[in-house]
Amino acid sequence: MKKKILICGGTGFIGHCITKELFSKNHKVIIYDNFSNYVPPQEGHYPFYLQKRLEEIKDKAKIIRGDIRDKELLTKTIKRTKPNIVINLVAIPLATASNVFFEDAIQINLNGHINLLAAMREVDSVERIIYTSSSFVYGHFKYDPADEKHSTEPIDIYGGTKLSCEILTKAYAMRFGVDYTIIRPSAVYGPTDANRRVSQIFVENALTDKPLQLHGGGKDKVDFTYLTDIAHGFVLVALSPKAKNEIFNITAGEGRSAEEFANILNDLLPGKVKTIIKPADLNRPIRGSLDITKAKKLLGYEPKYQLEEGLKKYLDYIYSTGLFKK
Ligand SMILES: NC(=O)c1ccc[n+]([C@@H]2O[C@H](COP(=O)([O-])OP(=O)(O)OC[C@H]3O[C@@H](n4cnc5c(N)ncnc54)[C@H](O)[C@@H]3O)[C@@H](O)[C@H]2O)c1
What we know:
Layout lengths: L3 E5 L4 H12 L3 E6 L7 H4 L1 H12 L4 E4 L5 H11 L3 E4 L6 H6 L1 H19 L7 E5 L24 H20 L2 E6 L3 E2 L8 H10 L4 E4 L5 E2 L2 E2 H13 L6 E4 L6 E2 H11 L6 E4 L14 H7 L7 H15 L5
This protein binds nicotinamide-adenine-dinucleotide (NAD).
The site of nicotinamide-adenine-dinucleotide has 28 residues, from helix 1 and helix 6.
């Protein structure tokens, strides 16, 4: 059955890709977004990539410019559009920025999500709320791969707001009879990322003859996930009855180190990758692989891209934009 899906944060990096896949399945998408980005404008090419995203979705999606902190507009939007499924992607999506601007992070990541839950009470159309959490809720991994039952002990504001929202979403769903699903992504990379995460910085540095900084020797592993894989995971979660009231790790399923990342990039861009060793960043949790067995079994989720193939596609995309020369 065709669904009406409200995506808060739907013009973002992950959101626009989910939107495209939902269109391909003929679902109706309404986007609520304030078009914001938390890296200095001269660094991440945000206006350029936002235009690229909008070109792909603006003709089909209903896009409403609004802030998740604006309870009145959010409530009006939900009352007017009566969605069946709500996906919340809004956050200061960077751990470092959430920690520096921590009061903003609480207002946007946490209070914004509470506004959304409160607005959903005004209609009886919503069947499921999908909350976008993060692998940061686990804190330092105690075992690898970390499954969804791993203890949740965030060590920073970003992870703290994500875990708070997970708890409130579950409690809300239990109390008010709505289904919930929580997704824990990790280190997403690919076309139109403008948030200056390590993947964007590494690729752009290699293309502009700048060194790649390997913190702590670059040995710590992170589960890098290609954009279309995470977007497909969201669509499976949105539409599958088996996702009801569940938490899923949705990633590539394999931790890779910054050193491996640099080596793969060096194979793709011979002679262009230089590295320097920097002190370890002690403010970040030590992570690794996420166990995606549950998503595979319940949803049939299967990531298509490991880092070798994903980076090649990402690089092809970056060349196609004309921002960097071959
Ligand atoms: N990209 C990753 O590696 C990753 C990993 C784990 C979790 N996540 C989570 O996924 C979600 C999406 O991340 P992304 O990478 O697509 O980031 P993004 O910055 O591209 O997307 C966030 C979207 O939210 C919108 N937004 C921000 N503040 C808003 C506000 N106050 N009101 C309304 N809209 C607002 C932005 O305009 C943007 O479109 C975030 O919640 C992030 O924490 C991302």
